[in-house]
Amino acid sequence: MEWFYDNNGQQAGPVSREEILRLIMQRQIKPETLVWTQEFGATWRPASAAGLVSPLTGLLRMSAGSSEHWAWALLVGPWLIQRLTLLILDWRQIPDSGRVGPLSVVGMMSLLLFFISFMLDRNSLRESGKTPPGFWWWLFLPGYFWKRRQIVGRGLSLLIVSLVLLAVNVTEKIYQFPQIEKELQMQHGHAEQPAPSPPSESGQENQQEEL
């Protein structure tokens, strides 16, 4: 693939991909420098929008395409953290009453990782010159990865894994319903049991006479 770039108002090139990466490393091409390759059609793009330079750091991006690293972290990271935590709690034989604190901390960590990965993946798409899916797709990840695949042109494995994980989570919830219902019935039964009535005065007098 041949690249052209703007050099003080004049068109320079063609140069190979290796050469343009070398120019970026030497800071001769900056994030705002206009570049062009055949894939861009008639439009020149800043190096940051072409996926060559990060607009945040100005550093070289080794892949001109959008990376899937943050997408996989978004999809699998929080799920793995929660699973490993449950395995550790089961291995340590910690009762349900002692799991509330650790699970709350892990839940906050998973949520933080989820949103960080989500925002970084959307930023990665922007840096590659593409418009990421809408922000509210975080509410339904299979929809997000479906839209992402349409935009990027790849990512079928991400979509399939997201659907599998969704099916696993839904199945687990269905199997947990009878246990949850049983626990609620037990709690309701305990609440309906009448409290023991205090002894009557006559009963107290009889006890005193026996003494």
TrEMBL record:
Residues 186-211 are annotated as: Disordered. Coiled coil: none annotated. The keyword Membrane applies. The keyword tRNA-binding does not apply. The chain crosses the membrane at residues 70-89, 101-120, 151-170. Pfam families: GYF_2. Residues 3-48 form the GYF domain. Keywords: Membrane, Transmembrane, Transmembrane helix. InterPro entries: GYF_2. This is DUF4339 domain-containing protein. It comes from Gluconobacter cadivus.
